Amino acid sequence: MKGEIVSLNNLESTGNWPEENLRQVDYSRVNLSRYDLIISSTGAGNFEKEVFLSATTLSIPSIHFLDHWSRYRERFTIMGTFYPPESVVAFDTLSLELAVQSFPDSKIFLEENHYAQRMMKLARLPEVNEYEWLVIDEPSPFFDVIENLDMLLKKLMNKNRVKVIYRPHPSRNNDFLKLVESLEIEISNEHDIGVDIGRAKKVLGLTSFGIYIAHLAGKSIYSVSPNETLKLLPVQKVNSI
Can you list the domains of the chain with their CATH numbers? Predict the structure, then answer.
């Protein structure tokens, strides 16, 4: 990754920063008034909200991509105040419907999700099925990975030494990964999640976008909380683990 934020904050251009580094970014050092348009995703993280609020305060046109299917208004609520986005982009009919309900005064566009399509193609490449399971990690109030991963692995293996690969969430730091390594599980360092999905027969997660990709690719998807998965992702069937 390159740009003013990288250079001003002395961030290594790795293309995959831990979220803890992003939290330390001082956006006040970036002169946003020099820009004609702000384009961003809509994660729930503070760094995206800070950029959005700065653009709103400076009256800079902005476009925000909805790559989720839940908590739309929350993603534009800062310190208890809701700031309606000027323009948002939805990627399917469900997200379009939710966007219309959440942002009645915003400009809403429907576009193809090129990232999802590219990941799905990677996941559908001639299957190697090198692993029985892919575990997609994500921070969640519904499932504490640190407390439950050991138990979960034993359940997945079911007394057999089937191969399991764990894909950490980008926010995980080295201390967390050392805990995972102590469980003697293989940790993926693959950049594209579609590649990991294509390497496994079954995919386990909760509400990760990767579960949606696995669904599109025709993989068997499993969840530690199927009700939450069905509520937050546009999938029709989720197996319970």
Answer: 31-111 (no CATH), 117-240 (3.40.50.2000)
